[in-house]
Specification:
Length: 248
Amino acid sequence: MSKAPTARLDRLLANMAYGSRREIQQMMDAGWIVLDGAKLRNASMRVAVTPDLVDRMTVRGKPLDPPAPLTLMLHKPLGHVCSHKEDGPRIYDLLPARWRSREPAISSIGRLDKETSGLLLLTDDGGLLHRVISPKHHVAKRYLATLDRPLKGDEAAIFASGTLLLEAEDKPVLPAKLEVLDDHRAYLTLTEGRYHQVRRMFAAVGNHVNALHRDRIGALDLPTDLEPGQYRVIDLEGLAPIFAGERV
Ligand code: URA
């Protein structure tokens, strides 16, 4: 079994944005930091950073935030932006304020457009982020598209061909799977994440996406009880389905 990493307590808590290292020492002097029922006094002590720390440590009487590495699933609501550069409410505003100042920072794994809803993963683990977004790892993302015009019937073959070119690009999109639900609705499963890819793929076959929702990443489904705007922490076991999805 691999040993849990250890961290200096003041650094651990400062990285989780509880305060500066000096402030952490003051919080300890005040008896506000408790581990296994005992008030901690020594800011330079090392603690094993294990997932159960959230159940064993309290800060000002509240359970410790989950330490890094932290991964979340969020039900992104319509109208929120994933990028720090765009205008509008940000997905990060949906997280506890302290989580927005953590080191390493939490960022979304890929992005959804402002007007797209659904399953979005966020993490402070750079390796995980890379594995999910890199087309090399073939993590499939499934979108439910509601279309302006009826489907013609040839779209599935065009999307699967691996030859479809998007406007202003010279590299065709990778083969993608279309599952038609009815005249105006279909699931589209992709393994890449180009800018506005689903909308642009439908535009390339003469249609227009009126509504877009992502409901699956790998074999991880957006839980039906996770309402728009809500998030949930995913543990190691919960991450496994991300890499267990079908190949397109
Ligand atoms: N494709 C899009 O067009 N928009 C998204 O948000 C995701 C994929």
